[in-house]
Amino acid sequence: MSQLSKPEIDFFEGPAPTELVITDLVVGDGAEATPGATVDVHYVGVEFDTGEEFDASWNRGASINFPLGSLIAGWQQGIPGMKVGGRRQLVCPPHLAYGPAGGGHRLSGKTLVFVIDLLGVS
């Protein structure tokens, strides 16, 4: 599988969505992620309103490996069905990310955009 490079996320126009928005940027042809799977991913996350990057596995030079059940709801809902080799964009409103404003996380109350590359499933 050819390794994709770190994605650039374009700034969004208009109001933030109130539901999860899933967009396949590259459709993979490998194993499919299931709701209970452990996934190996590279990702970039930006704030919807500002376009400012708040996190990226690319910057650490290593992918992350997590059970889907331990991730934010937007990832739990947005990654299953994705296939290894794919790249998917998820726009997660606050209730599917870190909760409403004042929730104690620095990203609480924010709509977040992630571009996720699925590298492996187990």
From TrEMBL:
PROSITE patterns from the UniProt entry: FKBP_PPIASE (PS50059)
Keywords: Isomerase, Rotamase
Known catalytic reactions: [protein]-peptidylproline (omega=180) = [protein]-peptidylproline (omega=0)
Gene3D superfamilies reported in the protein's UniProt record: 3.10.50.40
Secretion signal span: none
GO MF term set: peptidyl-prolyl cis-trans isomerase activity
InterPro entries in UniProt: PPIase_dom_sf, PPIase_FKBP_dom
Assigned protein family: Belongs to the FKBP-type PPIase family.
Name listed for the protein in its UniProt record: Peptidyl-prolyl cis-trans isomerase
Annotated organism of origin: Microcella alkaliphila
